[in-house]
Design goal:
Blueprint: H1 3-14, H2 49-68, E1 73-74, E2 89-95, E3 98-107, H3 112-120, H4 124-131, H5 135-143, E4 147-154, H6 161-178, H7 182-212
Parallel strand pairs: 3-4
Antiparallel strand pairs: 1-2, 2-3
């Protein structure tokens, strides 16, 4: 994580304003107003960073599974009727000889849709994402005798309960073949995922900060070439 990414991550974590201007004076490229805390930007679909964040998280899962099985691949087609790609990572023999598809989703708990519930109960957005998993993909996987694992993460780092169980299962496999204790393997996995999440959250914000904040040097955020 670069210096400016770390500083922005801390500001986001502590709820420090990202933009000194009134929110009504700043428009996103999607034409929505940007709030001074940057909450909109870490979920906005415009620009490439949200996709890159997703791909970076998928890469961590891929590398972790690859330690245990060298035949793990990305985005394999399911042999269902529409030959869809139900997951970001495919493991040919994950549990009891069954293949598994891992599908990663990031939900923003700061969106108006979730913020009220999230303010009362941590994980509300992640749990909603788990409930809204792609049932069509899951049905195709189950029809072929496979397993479907939705991995749902919130933008501020909370994993859904089912996702945490899945991450522990992945870490357990890593531990079995690497000689690393399970606790350490699980910690390594979740730490790598967390760093990638916050790094790309920061990148989504930094692009806009460079355009809007004139006195960026006073933030102690080093500019990048």
């Amino acid at each position: 994580m670069l210096s400016h990414e770390f500083v922005i991550s801390i500001r986001l974590w502590l709820g420090i304003k990202m933009f000194p201007s009134p929110p009504t004076s700043i428009l996103c490229t999607c034409r929505q107003h940007i709030d001074p805390f940057g909450d909109h930007l870490i979920s906005c679909g415009t620009g490439p960073e949200r996709t890159r964040r997703h791909n970076a998280l998928a890469e961590v899962i891929f590398q972790a599974l690859l330690v245990e099985n060298k035949d793990v691949v990305k985005e394999v087609r399911c042999s269902g009727s529409d030959e869809s790609r139900p997951g970001d990572v495919f493991h040919p023999d994950f549990l009891e000889g069954k293949p598994a598809y891992f599908d990663i989703t990031v939900r923003n708990s700061l969106q108006p849709l979730y913020v009220t519930k999230a303010a009362v109960r941590a994980g509300a957005a992640a749990e909603a994402g788990e409930e809204q998993k792609d049932t069509r993909h899951e049905a195709n996987v189950l029809a072929t005798g496979g397993l479907f694992y939705p991995l749902v993460l919130e933008t501020l780092g909370f994993w859904s309960p089912f996702s945490m169980k899945t991450l522990k299962a992945i870490a357990s496999k890593t531990s079995a073949v690497s000689g690393i204790r399970f606790h350490q393997a699980f910690q390594n996995l979740t730490q790598q995922l967390s760093v990638q999440l916050w790094k790309y959250n920061a990148r989504m914000l930094f692009r806009r900060i460079q355009l809007e904040v004139q006195d960026i040097d006073s933030w102690d955020i080093p500019t990048v070439a």
